[in-house]
Specification:
two-stranded antiparallel ribbon, flat, mainly alpha, 7 helices, 152 residues, single chain
Length: 152
C-alpha cells in the first residue's frame, strides 16, 4: 500500500530523519486499520452490495459521511455542501452559493444583507454574483451599529 525509498538517502550512522519517522507512523496506523476496522467494513459493504441498488452512494452517505464526520464538525468550514457542488472558480459565485444557505455576507467587518427572492422567485446565482462582486469591489463604509468587533 505504501512504498517509500527515503531510507536510501539516509546517511549511515546518523539518526533516522523526521520524514522516515512520520512514514513509519503512517505505515503502523495503516496496518492497524487493516487488521482491526477493515474486515468489518468489508463485510458490511458486501451485505450492502447485495441488498441495495445504489450501494456506493448509500455507503458513502451513511458510513463515511454520517458516522465519521467528527473532523468536519470541528473545522471552520461553514457550508461543506458547496464544496461538492463546485462548478466555477469565481469567488463571487461560490459566495452566492453559500448565501443561499446562510443568507448573510461578511466583508471587511461589515455584514451585508442580500435579497434571496426577487418578485417571488429565488434569485439566480448570476444575480448573486453581480451583487457580491459589487460588494467586493466597493469600499465598505460601516455605520457604528453594524460594525463588528475585530480581534487583531
Amino acid at each position: 500500500m505504501l512504498y517509500y525509498h527515503g531510507f536510501l538517502f539516509e546517511e549511515i550512522g546518523k539518526p533516522v530523519s523526521l520524514p522516515l519517522k512520520i512514514f513509519m507512523n503512517v505505515e503502523k496506523l495503516a496496518d492497524e486499520v487493516k487488521t482491526t476496522i477493515s474486515p468489518s467494513f468489508q463485510r458490511k459493504l458486501w451485505l450492502n452490495f447485495f441488498t441495495s441498488r445504489n450501494y456506493v452512494s448509500h455507503w458513502w452517505k451513511e458510513v463515511v459521511y454520517m458516522q465519521y464526520r467528527n473532523s468536519l464538525i470541528h473545522t471552520n468550514v461553514g457550508c461543506a455542501d458547496v464544496i461538492y457542488q463546485k462548478t466555477t472558480d469565481i469567488q463571487a459565485v461560490l459566495a452566492g452559493e453559500v448565501i443561499i444557505f446562510r443568507l448573510q455576507f461578511l466583508h471587511e467587518g461589515c455584514w451585508y444583507g442580500v435579497n434571496v427572492f426577487n418578485n417571488r422567485r429565488l434569485v439566480r446565482y448570476a444575480e448573486f454574483e453581480k451583487t457580491l462582486q459589487a460588494i467586493i469591489d466597493g469600499k465598505p463604509d460601516p455605520d457604528e451599529k453594524k460594525q463588528i468587533i475585530r480581534l487583531e
